UniProtKB/TrEMBL annotation:
Species for this entry: Metabacillus malikii
Presence of keyword tRNA processing: yes
Protein role: Responsible for synthesis of pseudouridine from uracil-55 in the psi GC loop of transfer RNAs.
Molecular function GO labels: tRNA pseudouridine(55) synthase activity
Reaction it catalyzes: uridine(55) in tRNA = pseudouridine(55) in tRNA
UniProt KW keywords: Isomerase, tRNA processing
Pseudouridine synthase II N-terminal domain: residues covered: 23-177
Descriptive protein name: tRNA pseudouridine synthase B
CDD domains for this protein: PseudoU_synth_EcTruB (cd02573)
Keyword Disulfide bond attributed: no
EC number: 5.4.99.25
Xref: PANTHER family: PSEUDOURIDYLATE SYNTHASE TRUB1 (PTHR13767:SF2), TRNA-PSEUDOURIDINE SYNTHASE (PTHR13767)
Sequence similarity: Belongs to the pseudouridine synthase TruB family. Type 1 subfamily.
HAMAP family tied to this protein: TruB_bact (MF_01080)
Length: 305
């Protein structure tokens, strides 16, 4: 069994929990996920099974789209609704759509973000949440992220001393949407936190492509789980690709260094190039050679001799 399964992750489970459950259902240890979701977050979680575990990093690198709700006027320790309240400021003046539009416009593009203390980012070999649970505040590395879309989804709801509204964001790998919610609040002049989040898209794969655990269990019972797994080659089809003749197939399977086609001579070193044979089978992932610019070398051989 191999391929990519698109799980509609339920609330209350960690991404690791989802992988553990899939190992039991698929009866294989070779399973990994592409892009961690917090326990309270739902939505698209691609699960790689069998040889597809070799392509996890390429699916993880894809952009993600989320629909979130930000609550203005209250800040929490975890930057989401699960944390303890650490700051309040009453929203006594209505927040306007024009104000939100200005904030969103200022955040589109490449911006800097500091990961939350309650996150799995490692500093000096320890995860930030380990420091946070020990009551230790530590300097966190600033990271650059890219926001390609940021828009309001519905009306602003003003309640007693707070305001909330939903927004959609499409962003690069490594973006913390709960930190975005805090940043939105700061730009509006208030403490804030993320009060709801769902991932609606990972790369080109939409939540409508996903299966619930109940649906997966039904397919396992019927013995048809393999039928709904996306083949490796299909999962990688948006990456640059090369189709090779049969006489090169064995060389690729053996991990040979090959001539770099001229259309890739200006390609960035390390960027993936997917190799397919004439039967549309995905054989390997290559990259431009780091020291020999007219050659390319394998980074992942997906089909061995």
């Amino acid at each position: 069994m191999e391929g990519v399964l698109f799980l509609n992750k339920p609330a209350g489970m960690t991404s690791h929990d989802c992988v553990a459950k899939m190992r039991r259902l698929a009866r294989t240890k070779k399973i990994g996920h592409t892009g961690t979701l917090d326990p309270d977050v739902t939505g698209v979680l691609p699960i790689c099974i069998g040889r597809a575990t070799k392509i996890v990093e390429y699916l993880t690198a894809s952009s993600k789209t989320y629909e979130a709700e930000v609550t203005i006027g209250i800040a929490t320790t975890t930057e989401d609704a699960s944390g303890d309240v650490v700051n309040r400021k009453a929203v006594t003046k209505p927040i306007t759509k024009n104000e939100i539009d200005e904030v969103f416009h200022s955040m589109v593009g490449t911006i800097e973000q500091i990961p939350p203390m309650y996150s799995a980012v490692k500093v000096n070999g320890k995860k930030l949440y380990e420091y946070a649970r020990a009551g230790i505040e530590i300097e966190r590395p600033v990271r650059k992220i890219t926001i390609t879309e940021l828009c309001q989804l519905d009306e602003i709801v003003h309640e007693e001393n707070i305001a909330r509204f939903r927004f959609r964001v499409t962003c690069s790998k490594g973006t913390y949407v709960r930190t975005l919610a805090v940043m939105i609040g700061e730009k509006l002049g208030y403490p804030a936190h993320m009060s709801h989040l769902i991932r609606t898209k990972s790369g080109r794969f939409h939540i409508d492509d996903c299966f619930t655990f109940e649906e997966i269990e039904e397919k396992v019972t019927k013995g048809i789980l393999q039928e709904v797994l996306l083949p490796i080659g299909e999962a990688l089809k948006d990456l640059p690709k090369i189709y090779i003749h049969d006489n090169l197939t064995e060389k690729v399977k053996n991990g040979a260094v090959l001539d770099l086609p001229k259309e890739f001579l200006d390609y960035e070193v390390g960027s993936p190039i997917v190799i397919y044979d004439n039967s549309m089978r995905c054989l390997a992932i290559y990259a431009k050679h780091p020291t020999k610019p007219h050659l390319m070398k394998p980074t992942k051989v997906l089909m061995n001799v």
